[in-house]
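pls design
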C-alpha cells in the first residue's frame, strides 16, 4: 500500500532530550542500587541492516528483587530507594545505544498457577517514522523460565522468539565492573524484532 507522510515521518529528539546520566540507571540516586550491575548495548537497525541514528531508546525494568517502582506493583519484594528502573538514550552514528543498569529479578504474576515472568527489560523505540515504532522486551540467555513464559511464547516463530533473547558478550563485559549483554533491534522487515507489550 502507498505510504503517506503521516507514516513516513516521526518524532525527532534533540540532544537536550536526554540527560547525561539518563542511560546509567546506577547513577540516578545518592547511592548505587543493589543487584548485579550489567551493561546492555546493541544497535538499532532498519529492515536493510542500516543503522538508525540519533533515535530515542527508552527502557524500564524491575529492580534486582523483581519489584517495579510503580504504584500498581504489589509484589511482596523490597523496593530499592536507589533504583527507579527507567532510562533513555539516543543511538550514535552507528545506531548503537548503551545502558548501565542492574539485572532485573524474575517476578510473579497472576496469569496462571505459580506464574513467573523471566527476567526482562522493556524497551520502547520510535525509529525515524511512526511505522518504525517498537515496544518490546529483552530477555537473558539461559533463563530457566523462558520456555514457560506465555508472553515470550505468544510469538509463534522460533527464530523471532530468539531475537528477543540477548547475547552474553565479552567485548561489552568490563573487567571487575559489569557483565555485558548485546541486544540488537531491527525495526520492520523480515528480521524485525517482535512486539511485546
Ligand atoms: Fe515487566
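designed seq:
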Amino acid at each position: 500500500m502507498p505510504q503517506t507522510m503521516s507514516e513516513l515521518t516521526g518524532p525527532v529528539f534533540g540532544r537536550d532530550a536526554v540527560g547525561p546520566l539518563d542511560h546509567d540507571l546506577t547513577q540516578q540516586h545518592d547511592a548505587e542500587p543493589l543487584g548485579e550491575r550489567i551493561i546492555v548495548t546493541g544497535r538499532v537497525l532498519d529492515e536493510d541492516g542500516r543503522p538508525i541514528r540519533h533515535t530515542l531508546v527508552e527502557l524500564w525494568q524491575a529492580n534486582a528483587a523483581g519489584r517495579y517502582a510503580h504504584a500498581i506493583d504489589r509484589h511482596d519484594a523490597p523496593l530499592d530507594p536507589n533504583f527507579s528502573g527507567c532510562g533513555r538514550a539516543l543511538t550514535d552514528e552507528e545506531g548503537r545505544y548503551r545502558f548501565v543498569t542492574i539485572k532485573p529479578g524474575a517476578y510473579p504474576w497472576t496469569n496462571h498457577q505459580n506464574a513467573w515472568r523471566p527476567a526482562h527489560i522493556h524497551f520502547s523505540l520510535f525509529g525515524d517514522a511512526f511505522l518504525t515504532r517498537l515496544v518490546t522486551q529483552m530477555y537473558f540467555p539461559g533463563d530457566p523460565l523462558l520456555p514457560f513464559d506465555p508472553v515470550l511464547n505468544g510469538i509463534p516463530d522460533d527464530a523471532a522468539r530468539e531475537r528477543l533473547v540477548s547475547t552474553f558478550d565479552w567485548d561489552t563485559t568490563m573487567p571487575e565492573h559489569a557483565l555485558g549483554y548485546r541486544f540488537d533491534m531491527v525495526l520492520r522487515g523480515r528480521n524485525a524484532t517482535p512486539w511485546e507489550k
